[in-house]
Design a protein that fits this description.
With 214 residues, the chain is an alpha+beta fold. The chain is built from 5 helices and 9 strands; from the N terminus they run H-E-E-E-H-E-H-E-H-E-E-E-E-H. It is 35% helix and 21% strand. It starts with a helix and ends with a helix. A 7-stranded mixed β-sheet has the order 2-1-5-4-3-8-9. The protein has a two-stranded antiparallel ribbon with strand order 6-7. The radius of gyration is 17 Å and the shape is globular. Strand 4, helix 3 and strand 5 form a beta-alpha-beta unit. Helix 2 crosses helix 5.
Length: 214
């Protein structure tokens, strides 16, 4: 099957899988990747994911999705107090960026918090700088974060945990969204699906195809 067809099939599969999860999932703990019941999106064969937000970056500057137009974007939602999924995934993204070599200039890894009450711009700056110099941390108001998550079809919820800092964690999925330079959705990944090197090779092939077609 042609690579482009494979991509479309994969996107369609993810779309239908997301509908199933969003429709039938119930209660969960912060360790589970099953979202609560939410209204099901209409699936038309393409992922209903919009690269749209108005947030603040880790340097305190107001940004939108258009700020990163012209570059491939790896978008991941999480929070800095996350005990396992987030640091593992961000380290994975950092490794993929290193594997890209010079082509890393064409890619921006973006970490959007789902815990804006604690994840201020300063906190995000200290956090993302520990993973990769090109990594961008985004935060905002509760409403801004909710809008961004909704556009990416990302669920999250506060989970009370008396042993955690401030007595709570944030339940959220571990998906990494690959967005095209024009802002359109390209693909979605989970860290355990492939090595960081394989992810880098996949992105490199997309960049090469873009250059040939351009």
């Amino acid at each position: 099957m042609h690579r482009t067809s494979l991509y479309k099939v994969r996107v369609a599969i993810w779309g239908f899988a997301a509908v199933a999860v969003l429709t039938f999932a119930g209660a969960f703990s912060w360790r589970m990747l099953h979202p609560p019941e939410l209204p099901s999106p209409v699936v038309t064969g393409e992922a209903a994911i919009r690269n749209a937000y108005s947030l603040t970056d880790h340097t305190g500057q107001a940004v939108t999705a258009e700020t990163y137009a012209g570059r491939w974007q790896l978008v991941f939602f999480g929070f800095t107090y996350c005990p396992d999924i987030c640091p593992t995934t961000l380290a994975y993204l950092a490794s993929a960026m290193d594997s890209l070599g010079p082509e890393a200039e064409r890619v921006v890894p973006i970490f959007i918090t789902v815990d804006p009450a604690r994840d201020t711009a300063e906190v995000m700056g200290n956090y993302v700088s520990a993973f990769h110099p090109r990594m961008v941390g985004l935060t905002g108001t509760e409403a801004q974060v909710a809008e961004a998550a909704g556009n990416f079809r990302v669920w999250y919820e506060r989970s009370e945990n008396e042993t955690a800092p401030d007595g709570y964690l944030m339940a959220h999925p571990g998906h990494i969204y690959l967005m095209r330079p024009d802002g359109r959705f390209e693909d979605v990944f989970i860290e355990s699906d492939q090595s960081a090197g394989d992810l880098a090779k996949h992105i490199s092939s997309l960049i090469e195809n873009e250059e040939r077609s351009g």
